[in-house]
Amino acid sequence: MDIRPLQPEDPPVIGAAFDEIGWNKPVSQYERYLQEQRDGTRDVLVAWVDGEFAGYVTVRWESPYEPFNGIPEIQDFNVLPKLRRQGIGSSLMDAAEALVATRSDVVGIGVGLYSHYGSAQRMYVRRGYIPDGRGLIYAGRQVEPIAMVCNDDDLTLMFTKTLKH
To answer: What is the pTM of this model?
Structure first.
């Protein structure tokens, strides 16, 4: 396995891989990530196995989630389903956490709440992430008690992890 920063030739390969499995992750998303990487606002780590795209994770250096207040956030973490359970996700998370540790003692992450996020939920807890204590977040805003929200990709629980002791 090789993990390296996103390169200019990667967006079409990544977009095609997700298009093949029916996920809405267009090439333009990775072109934007490439520009954000150039601008220094986001870093993207891409995993390759035997020369084949396997997955990626991004580090957004200034989280839009206000309570993180300067804590970098791991965002948009994906491993192709056919390549899961081979340590690729753990290796990507190791690399992302090591990258964040060069600038911060703490890293944040959000995770969706429906069943497709089950593996990620378990992984984050096993890796030492703990909920930030603010409850449910919908589209970046705290959900008030008794409020009705849609359980879609915008509904998350936010976690943090201390990287240095």
So the answer is: 0.90
